Each structure stands twice: as C-alpha cells, then as structure tokens.
Amino acid sequence: MSRSGDINALQPKAIGSSLMLKLATSLVLNAIKIMGITKVKSVLLLPCATGMAMTLALLTFKSMKPDGKYVLFSRIDQKTCLKCIVTSGLIPIIINPIPDPSTSEVLKVFI
Questions:
Q1: What is the pLDDT of residues 39-95, one digit of tens each?
Q2: 34 vs 13: CA distance, rounded Å
Q3: Distance (Å, rounded) from C-alpha 23 to C-alpha 15?
Q4: Which of 24, 45, 58, 64 is the most buried (most CB within 10 A)?
C-alpha cells in the first residue's frame, strides 16, 4: 500500500509500478466493457505474488476435486511451493528428479 493508505494512489518511489498499474487497470476496464458490462466505472487491481497465486490455484483445484488430498511435487530447492501446498490443506508427495549425467538436466522423474 502506498503511504497514503490508498492502494490506488501513485507511489512516488515506484513510478514504473504506478504506470503499469494504471495501464493494467485501463486494459481490464476496457475488457469488461467489451464483454458488454458497460456500467462499470472503475476496477481495483490488487497485486498477487507467486506464493499467493499458487495457493489460490491449488485451492481452486481442491474445490474442483474435493476428495483430492495429494500434490505430486518434483523436488526443487524452492520452499514457496511446499508452503503453498501445505497452506492449501493438501499433502505433498515429493518426487526426486534424476539428472542426466552428461548434461545435468533433469530428464526423468520417478516416484
């Protein structure tokens, strides 16, 4: 939030971000009007970091398949993924990738 407490207010120290927000807001408002919803006067865009986006996606998947409990997770050194899985109330099943010895690229993943 900006210093004024208004999330839509311009942020003097982040003018590039403020410009991108204005552009994105205009594009979203225009898209809504193209869809036929013409009485909309303004929209509010809120930032969503990677972890929040992943958590929201997992919660959506969980709502689509309520009996699902597990997420297959290819082990990488990234704690955010595990935090998102656990925050979503799901259980991670960690899969260790096997690197190709000649290139160090991950070619196969085995459970």
A1: 999 998 887 888 898 999 999 999 999 999 999 988 776 788 899 999 999 999 988
A2: 34
A3: 12
A4: 58
